[in-house]
Every structure is written in C-alpha cells, then in structure tokens.
Amino acid sequence: MSEEPDLELDCRGMRCPLPVIELARHVEDVAVGHQVAVVSTDVASRTDVPAWCRMRGHDYVGEDTAADGVPRFRVSRAR
Amino acid sequence: MDGRFGVVAYLDTASSTPLHPAARAVLDDALRSGWADPRRLHGPGRSARLLLDNARAVVAEALDVRPDEVTFTPSGTDATHRGLLGLLAGRVRAGRAAPGPVVVGAVEHSSVAHAAAWAERWLGTTTRELGVDRLGRVLLDDLGSLLPGASVLAVQSANHEVATRQPVAACAAAAASHDVGVFVDARASAGREPLPRGWDTAAASAHRWGGPAGVGVLLVRHGTRWRSPFPADDRVDERATGFENVPAALAAAAALRAVVDDAEATAARQHALVDRLRAGVARVPDVEVAGDPVDRIPHLVTFSCLYVDGEALVTELDRRGLAVASGSACTASTLTPSRVLEAMGVLTHGNVRVSLTDDATEADVDALVAAVAEVVPRLRAEVGL
User: Fold this and answer.
1) B345 and A17: CB-CB below 8 Å?
2) Is the CB of B329 less than 8 angstroms away from the CB of A43?
3) pLDDT at B68 over 70
4) Is B373 on the interface with A (CB under 8 A)?
5) Residues B305-328 pLDDT 10s
6) Which of residues 251-290 of B touch A (CB under 8 A)?
7) What is the homologous superfamily of the domain A7-76 according to CATH?
8) Which CATH architecture has domain B4-18+263-382?
9) Do the beta carbons of residue B213 and residue B206 sit within 8 Å?
C-alpha cells in the first residue's frame, strides 16, 4: 500500500451510511484498477467499506491513515 | 392499528416477547398467593415457597436439568453475569494468581463481553477473543491455541442477531480436554430448542419465551465449582440475590412449559417463514441476508440494505405497523454498530433484525417483504442512488 490512492474522499464527520454513499458516487471517477480512499471518522466504515466491496464486486485494499491520523479505507475499482 | 399486539406485525420477539397466555393464566393467582417471604415458616410463607419450588421443578423439567441446578435471577443479564463470573470465581484460589484468561466468542451478547471486561478489572483476568466466520459461527480450529491456560470459555447456544447455531458440544469437548469451564448463553434458543450439551453454567431469560420480564434463569451443573462473584445473600437459593419474584417465576415457568410443549411444531413453522422472508428480501437489489440459512434457530433473521440509514428504515417500517429491531450504529444507544455484524464482516448500515412470534403468519412475512421492497428503493432515491 505504498502508492497513494488516485482519489481521496473526505468523509470526516459523516455518519453511516454517508461514507459508503460517497464511495459509490465516486468510485467510477477513477479508472478500473485504480484506487479510491475513504477517509472516515465513522467506526462503521471499518466494516462497511469492505462489505461494500464484496457486495459491489470491487477489491478492498486495506486500511491506513490520512496525514491527520484519521482512518483511511482503500478500495481498488475492479469493474 | 389493527392486528395482534397493536401493530400490523410484531417482528421483534428477540428483544421481548408478549406475555404467553399460559403465563397470564397463572399470574393472577400467583400474585394472590405468592407474595410472602418463601423463607418463612408461616402459612403464607409456605405457600410462596411451594409456588417457587413448583416453578423451579417445571423449569427443570422443561429444560431437562435437575431442579437443584435451577436458580431464578432478577434478569437474563444477571443470570449471564452469575453464570460466567461465578464459574470464574470458582477458580479463584486464595493467595494465588488470577484465574487464567476468559475465552469469549466474538459474537456473544454484549452482556457477556461486559462480564469479561468486568472480570479483567476486578478479578485480574485477561480476555481472548474466539473469532467467527462470515456466517457468525465460532472458529473451532482456533480453540487449540486459545484454550491452553484459559479458565472459562463463553459460547452462546445460537446467535441473538443472525440466528446461527454454535457448535457448543464440540467447543465443550475441546474445553474439557484443557480443564476449561464452559458458560453457555442460551437466551436466544431456550424454550425453542433443547439446551446444547456440555455446559457447566448456562443462562436463559423468560421474556424471550413469553414469560414476564425480570426473570432470568441461571443453570449450574451439579458438581460444578461455582462461587458467587457478587455479595452473598441469604435467600432460599445460595446462588440467588434479592427477594424472589415468586409470581413472575411461576408465570415464566408456565410459559416455558407451554412453548416447549409446542416447540417442534412452532420451529417448523417459523423456519419455513424465515426461509420465505430470506428469499423475499434477497430479491431486493443490494440487500445482504446474514447468518446460516439452514443451521440456525427458527424464528430470527438479519439483513442489511446498502446505502440505507437504519434508523430511517426502522421508522418507515414502523409507520406501516411493522415492528423490527436494527443493529445499525444510528439505532444504538452507544452509536456503535452491532458487534455481531462487525465480527462477521457483514454490512452494518441499513440493518434490520426480524424475529417472529410463535403465531406469525405468511401474511406477516409478506407484509414486511413488500414494505422493504417499497421503502428501500425510495430511501436510496432520496440520496441519488
């Protein structure tokens, strides 16, 4: 996970399901095989972003942190 | 609104079940003759004692245990705390180190997790988490590394949110080979199916089977090293605390006997209804139905709807007279998602938990499926999806 994602979505302060809705709205802003990251303070994102990937056929890459330490959940567009 | 229980369909028996007619039938008489202190030797006291002993005998028979293994507690939560912590306290040795770690299934009820956390603080134990698969079933293979040195294993009979049955007998066999005590939270299944085998202590809750609230059942297997983890009380039963609610215990026992008598037929009916419900909501796009579809308790199912706010969904269903629960963070007092769904890796938002009454019908199920099919796309459209 060394490479930076192609798009970072600032979902700080949003409550579920808004971070996942943002992800769905913007996943096609990147090309297939490229990465979107959701920066989220909502604890549900840790479960819901990987679950969304499974349900929508994308690849969950993993969790790291944004520069300010907020959790960041990385997704690779697969289709 | 028309219908039973003041709604079109009451679909939340896992939170609480309406009082069974058999409980109601004995409650009035029991209130009249069971109010005195069952420890006293006078006539009213002996009447209360007779009713309490009767309640204990009925519960023991219904659960296929010995009467001296049954204790009535002030709640299912209290029975859970006493079951788990009393087993642990039985392993505390004066002047010795704290008992070994407590192994807790990742999808146990929060009251089990809270009891383990309490033991960390006050008994100096540590907690080891037993993980689960996507269906919510504990990973038996992990027990080999978790059990050595442990003192107690807490595993539920079946999950209270997703209905998946746990392999309690296999867990208990593994625990026995490591001299680890086994606590089974049987609240989700008691009265619906026989208790699983292998427990040293177990807990059940009357309002889950149609008894009144405020009656828990603690089971301590004959010969088990159990010690009260809390201040002692000088009641009829050394494991109990506080003045016994004799009328409620008797009503709980009557309800239990009635539901156990009908359990097989009820389970067959409910299992088929939940199959119908699972298939129905799965036809709505981007809905994930959780838990084991087959090896499960009969009356319960959970599903999650992508892009939907759980609170909005529950509210919309309530407006249509459909009473359901939710494990989504926005519907919880703690504002955290269900630990069960988290541990399973199942979508936590847009979550609905459905649990059927014993007399639920296809019409109840079809009404819910139709409402979900109508409400979910509308809520998604509101956010442009």
Assistant:
1) no
2) yes
3) yes
4) no
5) 999 999 999 999 999 999 999 988
6) 286, 288
7) TusA-like domain (3.30.110.40)
8) Alpha-Beta Complex (3.90)
9) yes
